[in-house]
Amino acid sequence: MGLGLMALAIPAAASNMAHRGEDHLRLQTIAEHNRARAMHGLGPLQWDETLADEAYGHASYMARTGQFGHDRTPGRRKKQGENIWRGQRGYFTYHEMVGSFTDEVRLFRSGVFPNNSRSGDWYDVGHYTQIIWPTTTHVGCALASSRDKDYFVCRYSPPGNKDGVRLD
Question: I need a labelling partner for 44 at 20 to 30 A (CA). Which of 27, 29, 65, 118 fits?
Answer without folding.
Answer: 118
